[in-house]
Design a protein that fits this description.
single chain, mainly beta, eight-stranded mixed β-sheet, disordered N terminus
Length: 270
């Protein structure tokens, strides 16, 4: 499926339907996997990784439960909190409770151990767990949390993470979180009838992935949030692999549903 921008050659857009993703209901964890993960496997190479982007899990963690302590190494891992609370504790001594608008980032590097737990006894947590492959091995593990208000994301794209090639690692509290990969991630809450345009962050071959976040456990009917990219329409939970963006220079995203559409937009090298 194709779309165009700036009147140039067409983009190649491959829809990733919400219910074609990997899925598991463990009782305490209700999850969808965009890419191959755990027991889910698809032979489609798009579903193994997309550039450095390796994992997008849309997780719902039951109240009073969570992920026990486990290990990671050589991955960039971040959590985008949609609703509820999630406690993060790790072997670097970090302990905090994340809420809506928070993005918690860990560069696992040579190795860390952490746990993620929903301590709230009444309210489930909804978050997106995202992993990317670093372009440098053997990094010293690091940790950063940033907060992005809904008002910041309303009808505009807000840069949440960005390559260290394009943003300084000077420890500033504000601005995007730096990471060691040729990858950026924006977030937006787009009102019905509004649109945004993402301009590529770097010249050369570039791809984009868009994920429309779900409001519930199942995709709603016609009254839900919807996006349009080129001639491809996404409903809640759907994603889109967009190839050939570097030739065109931009991607336009329109909100065509009945409700505001909260989505993530990733740009990366091919």
């Amino acid at each position: 499926m194709n779309g165009t921008a700036r009147g140039m050659s067409p983009l190649k857009i491959t829809k990733r339907p919400w219910n074609a993703r990997g899925h598991a209901d463990h009782g305490w964890l209700y999850t969808y996997h965009t890419f191959n993960f755990a027991s889910y496997f698809s032979p489609n190479p798009l579903h193994e990784s997309f550039g450095p982007l390796r994992v997008i899990n849309e997780d719902r963690v039951q109240a009073g439960t969570g992920f026990g302590t486990h290990s990671h190494a050589e991955f960039l891992i971040w959590s985008y909190i949609v609703s509820g609370e999630l406690e993060h504790r790790d072997s670097m001594g970090n302990l905090e409770t994340l809420k809506r608008g928070d993005v918690q980032f860990t560069s696992a590097g040579t190795g860390i151990r952490h746990s993620e737990y929903n301590r709230n006894p009444h309210v489930d947590n909804h978050f997106l767990q995202i992993w990317a492959k670093p372009n440098v091995k053997g990094l010293t593990p690091s940790y950063k949390t940033a907060h992005f208000k809904d008002e910041e994301k309303k009808d505009r794209l807000v840069r949440v993470v960005e390559s260290t090639e394009r943003v300084s690692e000077d420890g500033k509290e504000e601005g995007p979180i730096p990471l060691h990969a040729d990858l950026s991630m924006d977030a937006s809450i787009l009102s019905p009838g509004e649109s945004v345009v993402h301009e590529v962050v770097k010249e050369g071959p570039r791809n984009v992935f868009v994920q429309l976040i779900m409001s519930g456990r199942k995709q709603p009917g016609s009254d839900g949030a919807k996006l349009k990219i080129g001639d491809v329409e996404l409903s809640e939970g759907d994603g889109a692999y967009i190839e050939g963006v570097g030739d065109i220079g931009s991607v336009k995203v329109e909100s065509v549903g009945e409700k505001p559409a909260e989505f993530l937009l990733f740009e990366m090298n091919v």
